[in-house]
Here is the input.
Amino acid sequence: MQLIRSILAAPLLRSRIASIAQLRRTFSSSTSVSARAFKYVVSRRVKQKPAKKTNFWVKQHLKTGRRIKYPPYPYGDSNIFKRSNRGLFGGKFPMQGHSVSSELEKKNLRRWLPNANKTTLYSSVLKKRIRLHVVASVMKTIKKEGGLDNYLTKDKPARIKELGPRGWRLRYAVLLRLKEQEAKRLRGR
Here is the structure.
């Protein structure tokens, strides 16, 4: 340590180190911004996206011209698995367990997520294709029930509980449209 101090104390060496530091340091606060060349900076235009078309159940106007006010979902939003609020997850949640190695039989903690896929389902009542995240077991139930509208309008408490907030809104939109169709049919008689 003292050897380094003695070397740095030598006046010739100190001046040489200072000149090397000056060579490396090219930045100076005295240069003005206008002196710098900004020839590679190009102003570019950002493509304007057209306004997104909102779906029926989001912006369906009633005869009064107001937006639909959905009744509150009786079971509330899921705070455990928030992704299930945006699709038809049928009450499925992530599960935890161990993956066990075959040779050493070591246990590692892991998670199993629900088998959710993004699919487009057609609603014959709304006359729209609806893009949703749907779990495979719910897809099977929809096919068994005979379509999305039949799945959504079933009145059993277990079905309403597994719908989730997004399914609840879809259900309300379908029921509104069915009510309008029924009123038209009665007026036509």
